[in-house]
Design a protein that fits this description.
- By secondary structure, the protein is mainly beta.
- It contains six helices and 18 strands.
- The longest helix is centred in the middle third of the chain and has 12 residues.
- The N and C termini lie far apart (83 Å).
Length: 303
C-alpha cells in the first residue's frame, strides 16, 4: 500500500526526530521502543512539540520542541556557543508498513534553546524563514569567529588543552587541577613566550572544560580563596557527575582581540574582526582629519 493509504486507513503512525550538528547525529522517536528504519536507529524520547500551521504570522511555521534538559542536544547549547547549525527533521512512517515508507513532515534548524529546571524548549525555525535573518558576521573590532572553529579560526584546540585528574572540588563550582598554571606556561613557550605572568594566570579564562561528557564555560581563572589559586577555575554551575580523581579536559580561552590573537595563539592571519574600523560612523559624523574617535564636547571638537 502507499503511504497515503496507511495514513487514511489502518496505519500505526510513528514520528522520527533527527538533529544533525556537523558530523554528530541524534535520532529519536515518540515510540515506546527503539525503532530501526533502514540503517538508522531511533531511540525513544519523551518529548512534545507544537504543530506548524500556515497563516500570515511567520511564527506559526515554527516548532517548539519540549524535552528533558539533560538531553545531549540541549547540552550543545547550555555552555558552549555552537559554530555549526543544528538542523531538525521531523519524519513520519507507519510501523505496520512492510516497505517502511518515510515521509518528511517538517525541516528547519535550531534557533534557540531555553532551559527551565528539568525541561528545555527548542525553538526551531523552518529553512525558508532562516533566509530572512540578519547576517552572522558584523563589522566590529572583536573577532566574529568561534574559538577552535575548523574552517575560520583554524586553531587546533588540542594544542591548547590540559588533561589531568581533578585535584579537588572547593565548592560545587570551583575546581582545582594541579599543574594548570604550569601547563599554561609550557604551551605559551611553544608558541610565542610572549604572555605575562598575569596573563598565564588567566590563560584558561573564557575557555571551557569537560568532565564525563559534560561541558562548562570557565568564568573565572584563577579562582578559589584569597589569594586566588591559578590552578583553580570557576564554572557557572556544577557538573552533574564529577568527583576528585576524575579526568578533566581544560581548553584555553580567548579575549577575541588582535593582541591576544597574536601573542597567545599566533593566529592573526585568521583573525575574524575589523580592528581598524572607526569607533563611530565617518559617513554620518564629521571628524577632524586623522581622528577615529568621537572627541566632541559641548558641540565643539576637542583638539
Amino acid at each position: 500500500m502507499t503511504f497515503a493509504t496507511f495514513e487514511t486507513q489502518d496505519g500505526r503512525p510513528v514520528e522520527l526526530l533527527t538533529f544533525l550538528n556537523g558530523a554528530t547525529v541524534f535520532r529519536y522517536t515518540n515510540a515506546n521502543n527503539v525503532v530501526t528504519v533502514g540503517a538508522d536507529t531511533f531511540e525513544p524520547l519523551e518529548y512534545t512539540r507544537t504543530a506548524p500551521s500556515i497563516s500570515k504570522d511567520a511564527d506559526d511555521t515554527q516548532l517548539r520542541i519540549t524535552l528533558p534538559s539533560i538531553n545531549p542536544v540541549v547540552r550543545l547549547y547550555r555552555e558552549i556557543l555552537q559554530s555549526n547549525i543544528t538542523t531538525v527533521t521531523v519524519e513520519r512512517f507507519h510501523d505496520n508498513d512492510p516497505d517502511q515508507q518515510v515521509q518528511v513532515f517538517w525541516k528547519g534548524e535550531v534557533g534557540s534553546v531555553t532551559v527551565n529546571n528539568a525541561l528545555a524548549t527548542i525553538l526551531a525555525t523552518p529553512f525558508a524563514q532562516g533566509t530572512d535573518e540578519l547576517p552572522r558576521f558584523t563589522y566590529q573590532g572583536l573577532c566574529n569567529y568561534f574559538l577552535y572553529e575548523g574552517s575560520t579560526c583554524r586553531i587546533i584546540r588540542n594544542d591548547h588543552r590540559f588533561v589531568a585528574p581533578i585535584s579537588g572540588i572547593l565548592s560545587p563550582t570551583q575546581i582545582t587541577v594541579n599543574g594548570l598554571r604550569a601547563e599554561a606556561a609550557i604551551i605559551d613557550a611553544t608558541i610565542s613566550g610572549a604572555l605575562s605572568s598575569d596573563e598565564l594566570d588567566e590563560y584558561w579564562l573564557n575557555g571551557y572544560c569537560e568532565v564525563n561528557g559534560e561541558l562548562r564555560r570557565i568564568i573565572r581563572s584563577p579562582a578559589g580563596g584569597s589569594p586566588q589559586d591559578p590552578d583553580t577555575i570557576e564554572i557557572p554551575y556544577k557538573f552533574n557527575n564529577a568527583s576528585t580523581g576524575d579526568q578533566i579536559e581544560v581548553f584555553a580561552g580567548c579575549k577575541r582581540d588582535t593582541d591576544i590573537c597574536v601573542r597567545k595563539f599566533n593566529n592573526i592571519i585568521n583573525y575574524g574582526g575589523w580592528p581598524t574600523v572607526p569607533k563611530i560612523n565617518p559617513f554620518t559624523t564629521e571628524l577632524p582629519v586623522g581622528t577615529s574617535a568621537d572627541t566632541q564636547r559641548d558641540g565643539f571638537w576637542a583638539g
